Amino acid sequence: MNGGVVVTMSAPVIVVPSELEPATLQYGDTVTLSSFDKCVVPFPVTALLVFDRPIHEPAETVKKALARALAHYRPIAGRLAAGADGEVCLACTDEGVTFVAASATCALGLEELATSAAVLKGLAVYYPGDICGDADPLLLVQVTEFSCGGFVVGVSWNHIVADGAGMGQFLEAFGELARGVSPPSVAPVRRWDDTLPGLPPSMVAAQKSTMSHEPQDLAYLDVTVPASLIGRIKAESGGTVYEAVTAVLWKCRTRAAMSSSSQGEVDSNPESLAPLAFPCNMRAHAGAGDGYYGNCVTVQTVPATRAAVAASSISDLVRLIRRAKEKAPDILSSSCSSSSVNGNGDGVAEEQPQLGWYDAVAVVSWHNLGFDAADFGSGAPARVMWYGERNVVPGCVVCPSGNGGKDDGVRVSSIFVKPEHVDAFLGELEGLAAST
């Protein structure tokens, strides 16, 4: 496989909910957005599920299963609309989702695929803008068949309809229906129980503002944080795999951003902020029922200067990350203040300085969310990847382990460094790995 691979796409078709499946919501129903949904800007997210073992007629199999899945997850086949109270809601209009069948002129090579942004770009359908429009479908699906029989299922969705855990649940059900399992093992729930705690309006506004920057072009990188490095960090800090990987990425990316730019300039203010942001799944803390697939995350921020991040040990950064995670449930308290958003836990609300677009970095984990459990008939994906050319914040996704968990490390899909900082970032990562 190489950058000259040709991906031929068929004309898009619209897939609507099947009438052969039972539905918990009906045509014409509406779903009010929760406070967690309102935190989210309607930006697109794209996941690529790579299968190296064939199934019979992948495109047709997936398309039929998609129609069945939409019957159970009917709001995904609808549109954003104004409700009776004038607030934006999810309307079950049955206008459907976009589906594209495609074929590639080569065999599926996992390593080559991961490192070729040009090929990855051709494996999914994308929204026309950086932000999804109200009239756009809430989900876009493409199935690309390779000459070896392997295939890729690319899904792009409007984040307002589901967070990562919700989309992982949908994809797992999607696969079950492709294999003839009906109804899905988890009964879907989209309506939020208003008796459960939510987020105060001030926090909704604060979290939404973190996603208000104009996206810029950054380099796409697929990297591996070695298992040996992760093991050493866990032994020293007692942290989780996610905390270890996040600390490594935060430190390496910050040091790279302080390096010489392509114009030969060096960052002159190491005391400027370089905060880390990461989402926390609040389902258990908020009491969301089993099967809820709407948004239920908050964004925790770890404030720190560039100099502090660059000079800190990985173990110290792990402790900062863990402290912020432990503070996440506090934001559901009626007495929470703006300090809860920042994760500093000092009980003092303070006005935060305005950050530049490139200052912060977001690290998201797709581990244990269901992406790697999507099985359309030939087993779990060999790889799960996130792909994007532009993002509302510089960020990355810590992807589930492929190859049955046999990867020698944790794979990360990222768009969080400028092209002139790529070599510095890779050098920092290599240096940390070599120190084990």
UniProtKB/TrEMBL annotation:
Task: Tell whether Transferase is among the UniProt keywords.
Answer: yes
Q: Which GO terms describe its molecular function?
A: acyltransferase activity, transferring groups other than amino-acyl groups
- UniProt keyword Protein biosynthesis, yes or no: no
Q: Which InterPro entries match?
A: CAT-like_dom_sf (IPR023213), Plant_acyltransferase (IPR050898)
Q: Which UniProt keywords apply?
A: Transferase
Which domain of life does the protein's organism represent? Eukaryota
Homology family: Belongs to the plant acyltransferase family.
- Which PANTHER family does UniProt cross-reference here? ACYL TRANSFERASE 4 (PTHR31147), HXXXD-TYPE ACYL-TRANSFERASE FAMILY PROTEIN (PTHR31147:SF55)
This one is known as 10-deacetylbaccatin III 10-O-acetyltransferase
The scientific name of the source species is Dichanthelium oligosanthes
Q: What is the lineage of its organism?
A: Eukaryota, Viridiplantae, Streptophyta, Embryophyta, Tracheophyta
